[in-house]
Each structure stands twice: as structure tokens, then as C-alpha cells.
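Hey, resending since the last one bounced:
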Amino acid sequence: MKKLCTILAIVLLCFQGTAQNIYTWQDFVNEISDDAYAEEQGWTEQMEELALLAAHPMDINTATQEQLRQLPFLTDKQIEEIHEYVFLHRGMRSISELMAISSIDFRTRRFLSLFLYADQAAFARRDTLTLKSLLHNSRHEAAVRMDIPLYYRDGYSYPPQQGGYNGSALYNNVRYRMKSQQHLDLGLLAEKDQGEPFRKNSGWDHYGLHVMVRDIGILRTAIVGDYKMGFGEGLVVNTGFTTGKSSLMGRPSQGIRAHQGLDEVNFFRGGAATFRVKKAELTAWVSHRKLDATLNSDGTARTLLTSGLHRTDSELDKKGNLGSTLAGGNVAWQHKGVHLGATGYFQRFHPNLSPGTALYRRIYPMGRNFGVVSMNYGYTHLWFSVSGETAYSTNQGGWATLERASWKISPRYTLSGSYRFYSYKYYSFYASAIAENSHVQNESGATLRLDATPVGRLSTTVYVDFFYNPWPTYTTPRSSSGQELTATIQYQWRQHHTLSVRYQLKHKEQYDLMRWHNRLRLQYVWAKASWSLRSLLNLHAMDGDRPGYALSQLVRYKHTTGDVAVMASYFDTPNYDTRVFVYEPTLSNMFRYPSLYGRGIRLSAVGRYFVWHRRLCLEVLIGSTRFTDRKVQGSGMQKIRSPWKSDISAQIGLRI
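The C-alpha cells again:
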């Protein structure tokens, strides 16, 4: 450890300079990421969707409320005040005017700098909505990505009859999107994962399509194709953003929106529409999909699969085994800080669900017909807000409730807390809310959080969470409990130096043992207009094991014609349980937050080059890992018989 600390000190002191500090996408990821939840289902897909929003920032002077609701760190109160400011001042000249809105603090302004820009001229020249104006103002974007692995897995050495992969090792996706003003959005995507076959009849393994219109009379939003949505506190429906208890990204009330990511599981397929009548909004939706599932010998579905992989004959046999038809609706009302709403849906499966008799599976949903209803409520004042949702599921008659409160003590201090009770009998297939577990079920808990900016550019966040699982889980054959404490401190000085420290302590039962997790992330950033340097130390210790760590250094150079980023990491962890996560710079519309375990070196480099007035973008990513503690990686068909793992990704993007 002394040697490690010496190396870190040298790295931190080597880079000094004077320049303006520029907030980047990587700063955002490092600030909101939580290693404890990095491998939750859908987390990568959610961050890829945020990367899409960052790659296509919105004009704050013309953005609608529905568009701003796509930014999950914004509250409804903040969105309302942004619209009031834009209306009263005839638009913003620059994003820096957000400082005049009292409810938007320094951290939120930094976040918004990635997703918004100000074009006051656009505010003044709003066009009348006609078919001609829609076609004339449309923008078209297309991108093609290819991943080429420079290693060989055992799955490609065996024929499909012996469990081998049916397709090539290449990964490929194709995207197309057309947007016109704020009213029309059309998207198409196709994807083939590594090992999946490219079929003569069907081509790519997965397709996605959506057509969305907005703000036409009383019609707020209408979508045909693939879409996502979130209402209330997320106890019934939330297929949007949620990245853990400690994150600022947990606001599910986003309504309906187009599904633009590569997630093959967590979305709806059909149609949805929202209408606004005075102070009320009415939403209705219908969806029908084929889901992957393993079947029992009697033809019933045992397990719903979420990997989206169809490489082997066995995986292909499970594709589309379960049909799901769903219809539902939401009504929401707001007036003078008070909001009320109701959400519900009915879902029918074919064939029936039969999850098995294992103790932890006895609380899983069983049968064919399912229904969930809820009421959500809340009140927002200038310095105080409360909100909550109470839901009921018909399958086993279970209840769930989530209550939240926030008090802005002063412009620099905000105290918030929440209480949750999710009965083990409650279940909603599309719920996502504050929880220790991955499902909104079988958990009760309470969280207390303090956000503070005591002086200047010093910001701190501290939260503590207590949780309890009354029914046995997969990892614990009895009732279990735990606690979590997380503290984050970030300090910026001289406009170009930023130091942040994050510490997390978690005490949780696993396999009849109480395990202590200690995670520490120390980061230093020096940045100016063209150059930026980032030094990062990650530590993860568990009782009974020596600490695992990763030491990383990133160098980035930006130019008007493109940019280059190079990152190197050395990692050493005693086992998989003490693995660490390090975010890597990557291609546009892509997110990579890999786990590192064992001992070795990880190198990655990404380059981006713009031509034709920045309409055409050429990108290349090269990554390589060298393990020094093993000669074979993985197991089964995923086995790589080499200590090296290298790959190349290339992407071409066109904007017209």
C-alpha cells in the first residue's frame, strides 16, 4: 500500500497548469455512478440512453416539458421554473443564466451543461406547424458500429449441435433517426450480438422502430412502436432511469418516451398516447411482445430471461417462448404545487408462469393474469416537498408504498429522506424504485440524505440506508438485513483542479454471513480547453480479504477536428467479490463501465475525427487487457485460452 500511495502522489503532483475547467460526460458518469449497482439489469442501457441525450443536446429555449423530463435529475419544480424564466425573458442567451433560478444548484447546472444549449434566435423564429415546415426542418442521423474481437472463445470451436455458437464473433448495430422541430421523431435500429447468427430471412437478431409525435393540439405525446415510460414513484411502471439509492437519477415521472437504446428486454412494443385537458393529463397504452423464457416439462414458463443473447441452439430455443399482452393507463393532475395521479395495468401471459417450488421462488408471480394499480400524491412548496405512491398487485394481494420528503434548509443545504415497504406478496413486472434488491418486492427500509455546499465550490453528499428482507432471497435462506453509509466530497479550486472522494460502507447478509464492504474512490482532474488529465484510485475491501484496487490514468486531447483519449489501469484484486469498476471513454452512443478483478493491466484508446463540416464522424476504439495471474479466462463456451483480451470497435456516424 505504501508503494501504491507513492505512485498516486506522484501522478497527482505531475500535472499542474492554469485553464478553464470544462465539465465533461466522464465527469458526469463518475459523479453519479455507484459501483454497488453497476451490474444491475438495465443500468448500462439506461446510461447509453443518457449518452444519446448528451450527444444530441436540446435548445433550452424551445425544449418542452416532456423533453426536459427525460433528464431524470430535474424535478418538476425546476422544469416549471425553467419554462417560466424562458417565457418572461424571451429566451436565454446562454446556459449560465440558469444561475438566476434559485431551485437549480451548482451541481445541477453542471449536469445541464451537457444536455442543454441556448439559441435565443430559435426562440424568436418559432415556425408555424405545417407538413412543409416539418419536412424542411427535419434532421437525419445514421450510424453503423462494428466490434471485432482479437481473441477466440471456445464457443466458436464447437458445432451448434455440441453447444457451440451459431454466428460469427462480430458485433454489429445500425441506427437511423429523423427529427423535425419538437414535433416528429422517427427511429430505427438493428443489432446482432457476438455469436448470434445473421440469418438470410430475418437478418439481424433484434430490431427496433418508433414513430413519435408531440405537442399537436391537446395531444402531448403519441408513440407507435417501441417505447418506455414512468409514472408516480415507479412502483407500478418505471422503465426509465434508476441507478441506485445514492444516485440523483431516480425520478421516474417521465411519462411516455421513445425507446432508443439497445436494451432488448426492458421496453414496451405497441402504442401509447398522452392528452392534456386543462390541468389534467390522460395516458393510455397497449403492448404485445414475445419474451425469452425457459419452459418446464409441462409447457409453462419457469424463468424470464433478460440477457437478450441468442447464440447457441439452447438460447435460440428459448427465444420468444412467452407471449405478453398488456394494457393500462394513467391520469395525473397538478395545481399550485399539488399533484395527484393514478396508474394501473392488466397483463396476460401465454403460457402460464410457473416459477418452481424453491423457497426463494415461492414469492415469484404465478399464473396467467396479473393486475397492478396505484395512487401517487405529493405537494411541492418553495423550500419543502413531499411525495409518495401506494400500490396493490392482484396476483397475491400484496401492497407496496414509498414515501419521500425533502427540505431545502437553505440555498446550501438540503435534507431528504424516504421510507419504503414492499411486501413479499407484491409484484409488478415493470416497477423500479429505491431498493437494495433488483425488484420492488420483499423489502422495507429507510434512507436519510444530506446534500450540502458549505463553501464555494465544495459540495458534499452523505446518506445512510437501513433495509430488511423478510422472505429468504437467492443468497440468504432466511430473513436478512443490512445497512449502508455513503459519503461523497468534491472540491474545485482555481477553476481547473477538481478533487473528489467517495467512501461507501455496506453491512449486508450473504449466505448466512454478515459481510462488510468498504469502497473508496479518489479522483483528481486537471482540465483546460484542449487537454485534460484524470487520476483515479479505486479500492474495494471485504472482511477477511486483502483489499482490491485499481489505479488509472486518463489523458484526453480535444481539437476542432476531433479528439483522442488514452487510459491505462493497473488492477490487483484477490477475488471476484472485491472487483472494482472503472469507467472508460468510448464511442458515441455507447457506455462502458467494466469490472476489473484478478491482477493485470488494462489499456484503452479512442479517437474521433470529424469531416464535412462535422457532419461525418469516424470513430475507433481499441482496448486490451493483459492478466498476469492467469493464462485462461472465463469458463465453458466463453473460455479464452490466453492471458490477453483485445478488441477493436469502429463506428461511422452521419448527420444531415
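The chain has one domain: 2-129+181-193+204-527.

Sorry for the duplicate.
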